[in-house]
């Protein structure tokens, strides 16, 4: 999967902050069942401990 940047020439910290904002915005729109499924998937993959 190729990287898609909305701001070219950004440093790593700026890109990280942009990705976090995008993920937060997407998560806010999920319903409870979708959030639980995402949570259990992240736990199963050991992203959340």
Structure description:
0% of the residues are buried. The protein is built from two helices and no strands. The protein has helices spanning 12-28, 32-44. Helix content is 61%, strand content 0%. The protein is mostly helical and 49 residues long. The chain starts with 11 loop residues before the first helix and ends in a 5-residue tail after the last helix. The model has no long low-confidence stretch (mean pLDDT 89).
Whole-number mean pLDDT:
89
**With helices defined by DSSP (H or I, 4 residues minimum), what is the helix count?**
2
Backbone CA Rg: 14 Å
What portion of residues belong to β-strands? under 5%
Write down the overall geometry: elongated
Given as residue ranges, the uncertain stretches (5+ residues, pLDDT < 50) are: none
Structural class: mainly alpha
Span from first to last CA?
26 Å
Report the helical percentage.
55-70%
Reported for the largest beta sheet, the result is:
none
Helix/strand order: HH
Number of strands: 0
Brief summary of the model shown:
This protein has about 50 residues and is mostly helical. About 60% of the residues lie in helices and about 0% in strands.
Could you outline the blueprint of secondary structure elements for this entry?
Layout: H1 12-28, H2 32-44
Question: Top keywords for this entry?
Answer:
49 residues; mainly alpha
